[in-house]
Write a structure and sequence with these properties.
Blueprint (H helix, E strand, L loop, with lengths): L43 E2 L39 E3 L15 E6 L4 H18 L6 H9 L6 E7 L2 E8 L11 E7 L8 H13 L4 E5 L4 H9 L2 E13 L13 E5 L6 H11 L11 H8 L9 E6 L2 E11 L9 E9 L8 H15 L4 E7 L3 H9 L3 E11 L2
Parallel strand pairs: 6-7, 12-13
Antiparallel strand pairs: 1-12, 2-3, 3-4, 4-5, 5-6, 7-14, 8-13, 8-14, 9-10, 10-11, 11-12
Helix pairs in contact: 1-2
């Protein structure tokens, strides 16, 4: 990750992402987790917007796949030509060589199709090795699309192979003291060579002295050790909670005056975005969603409006439960349901709407024949955790954000 932090990198790493957390690459590789769940006024945001986070493990490269063979571009390769390439020759912090060959770093705003494909192959190799996706759904979607305005994609090459990748989000505001969030991953075949620290230095350079928050999926000991070596501490955590759908479910009970229907694409996006903004007003990821974010997900093969429930009081939307079905990840490698996002208007707090919407979505997933459901929730949200535990969920894993000590 990085050597002891200097003034330019009093960093944090950030997700997402659920997170949540991680997300499924379009090409090879298993699905990465979705975003984080949230609650109180926002019940949960499990698409780890969310499954958020940075792959910082140093697992021995057992039977690992070869690293992506896409060569580092000598010149512009169809991505964003505006950002400089940093190599071992012009970056004093880089390793000029080593067991794996020369090291160089390319920084892009947008990725070329070949670069995006190489990143997704790397993500698949890391997920297969570690048993958890290294990037959040949000970052995987950005990689597939080439990137977003203000984002930075850092490609680390060793011996002509893509050995590492990091994504740095644009900060919500240039004056935001929270800075940017990022995620990183090193290919299993290139670990234990200091490349994680090398990638961290590159992220610090791109952050230009601003804080950076990084997510680590899985709360693995190697990630914690790497963070400690960089002077970073645990600042936030997302729980991944699961529940069997073979266990009986209570029936949902709606408050008087509440009706529930399903989402209508092309009609409900503006009202839903306004409700999402109210429900997640204080959330660093979910609260920033734009029309582009929801449009991206409507283009995903998993999107199904039949599993996207909207609650209304009269003409006004006051709550929602967006479910998701993963093709794998459940018992025996079968499909798995997800409480992707639940949001409740602050004006409806205390009416039981969050619980009712949760149950409506769980009944829907069970009726689709799924055996298990999962969600992400902030560790700092005890009210939401109590709700989910009362419905039979239990913690299965944790994603951790590391940042500068307070």
């Amino acid at each position: 990750m990085r050597a002891p932090p200097g003034p330019a990198f009093q960093a944090t790493w950030g997700r997402r992402r659920r997170r949540g957390p991680p997300a499924a690459p379009a090409a090879p590789g298993p699905p990465a987790p979705s975003g984080p769940a949230r609650t109180p006024a926002q019940m949960t945001r499990t698409g780890r917007t969310a499954r958020m986070p940075a792959r910082m493990t140093r697992t021995p490269a057992r039977m690992t796949r070869p690293a992506a063979r896409t060569r580092p571009p000598a010149r512009w390769s169809g991505g964003d030509p505006a950002l400089p390439e940093r190599t071992a020759e012009n970056d004093p912090g880089a390793r000029a060589g080593g067991a794996g060959g020369p090291v160089s770093v390319t920084v892009r705003g947008r990725l070329s199709p070949a670069e995006a494909e190489a990143v997704l192959r790397l993500v698949g190799a890391a997920a297969a090795q570690d048993g958890v996706g290294p990037l959040s759904e949000q970052v995987v979607l950005h990689v597939r699309d080439g990137g977003g305005p203000g984002d930075r994609n850092v490609l680390l090459w060793q011996g002509g192979e893509l050995a590492g990748f990091a994504h740095l989000d644009a900060p919500a505001d240039a004056t935001d003291p929270a800075g940017s969030s990022g995620e990183l991953v090193i290919h299993p075949a290139h670990r234990r060579q200091g490349l994680g620290r090398r990638l961290m230095r590159a992220i610090a350079a791109e952050a230009a002295g601003h804080p950076v928050r990084l997510w680590a999926h899985g709360d693995l000991p190697a990630a914690a050790a790497l963070a400690a070596g960089a002077g970073l501490t645990r600042t936030r955590a997302l729980w991944r909670m699961t529940r069997s759908l073979r266990i009986p479910l209570p029936e949902p009970r709606l408050a008087p005056g509440i009706t529930v229907r399903t989402f209508v694409p092309g009609q409900d996006e503006p009202q839903w975005l306004a409700l999402n903004g109210r429900a997640f007003a204080g959330h660093p990821e979910q609260g920033r969603w734009t029309r582009e974010d929801i449009d991206r997900r409507e283009r995903e093969p998993w999107f199904d409006p039949a599993g996207f429930f909207l609650a209304a009081r009269g003409p006004r939307l006051v709550g929602f439960h967006w479910t998701k079905i993963h093709p794998a990840g459940g018992p025996g490698g079968g499909p798995e349901g997800e409480v992707y996002v639940i949001g409740v208007d602050p004006a409806e707090q205390g009416t039981g709407l969050g619980r009712a919407l949760t149950l409506i979505g769980l009944h829907y997933l069970r009726d689709r024949g799924l055996a298990e459901v999962m969600l992400y929730v902030e560790e700092s949200n005890p009210a939401a955790i109590r709700l989910y535990e009362s419905l039979g969920f239990s913690r299965a894993a944790t994603d951790v954000m590391y940042g500068p000590a307070a």
